[in-house]
Amino acid sequence: MTVSEPEQNLELLRRRVLANLSNRTSSGLAKVRLHNVEMEQVQIYKMLENTIKFNEGKSCLVIGPRGSGKTTMVNNALLDLQERFPNMFYVIRISGFYQSDDKSAIKEIARQLDWHLLRHSGNWNVSFERFSANETMNSVMSVLDGSQLMEGKDQNGDNDEMQMPIIFVIDELDRYTNDAKQTLLYNLFDVAQSSSNSHAVAVIGLTTVTGVREQLEKRVKSRFSQRVIQLTKPRQLAEFCDNVYCMISVDPDDFDPLMFDLAQKYNAHMKMLLGGPSELRKLVVHNFYTVKDLNILKSQLTPYIAKMDMTTFSGGPIINVNTNNRSFQILQSLSELELKLVICAGRQLLKNSMDQVNFNIAYEEFEKISSSQTNTLNSQLQTMGRVKLDSAHHSRDLMLACWERLIYYGLLVEPIRQINGINSSFYTGGESNKMFHLDVTVEDVARLFRHKDWVTKWCRI
């Protein structure tokens, strides 16, 4: 049975949308469309372009929560560079998840260098991997700092493959800060800082830990280029919907003229579903107010698009996925005082239209509410002829300890502030004055603990 051309066009459109949803962002084999990170991607592109064109060694940290697009953004920049400078640089990827210590990481670097050289030159005699980790480290570093390059050039006269710029992409960089000496990070940052005219190295570190720069050892930090790029998850539902639309829409210019109108019609229909009452809108809103995870949403949208009737654009079934928000799980394990501090911090953010809060502000709200509730209770007891109660007083040091535990749990996230691309100091007179982002809202707490009367009263503004 032959398939008509219109049906082929509809299936091509479906496959293109499914490709957007199923692209493996960690592989870096194909570009993945992202929303609202164009400026950050241009910064990465320009830095790496200077490394390739002008042998300019740089290092950079990309910080953001999981699912914010860190790896995808770097991969998109690398793919753009590969199109413009084909076979003119090497990319070495390591991850703190898989290469958990310096020894395994340096062996993986040597293995990837061997593969790149073999692919470009076909020379089986060159190998950087040695029997011991220390010898492997010396072998790799002798190439990166240029000492072995000059010797090879004298002997062979043609070592262009070994002189190519090398770009290191280190995922979960914070795991390499646990080592006391941080040897791997020190050597890579040092080589990137001292890149000579004959060789260039760029290092990009990806991490979810906001304060990772403070975890770097002093000598490592001195060799870091102080360039930090921070990504955040969408804070508003409209911005989150724009991210979803970017995932499920297509670029009409990628199709031939016969399918241009069809692609535009599909995009308009998807935008209408996201903006008005629909099952798709309901799914997106539920995800935003629970886990705010685009990866989970991709898993749910894949069968929706796969079973979609492409003639009417009516969607298929939506699979319910168990979404347990880590922050909600932490909230359920908090003590009463810690939970009250979270509520007070959220109240101050709402009342004063702020996006950051410190301990002093939250503690002031805590004392105000506690005093108000004690006065209300005493007035009721006085009406009944009962003895007044003394107000329950919790020391400031005790509440500060609770605040520090909230930071440790990750409910309070320290933002990164930059001046001319360099991190500015957050110290403004004491730990109690440090500003933090709150990872949950008062509405989240009230909804999670709706069966507790005291939580409902404290959340009421």
UniProtKB/TrEMBL annotation:
Signal peptide: none annotated. GO terms for cellular component: nuclear origin of replication recognition complex. Its main location: nucleus. CDD domains: AAA. Coiled coil: none annotated. SMART domains: AAA. The keyword Ribonucleoprotein does not apply. This is Origin recognition complex subunit 4. It comes from Ogataea polymorpha.
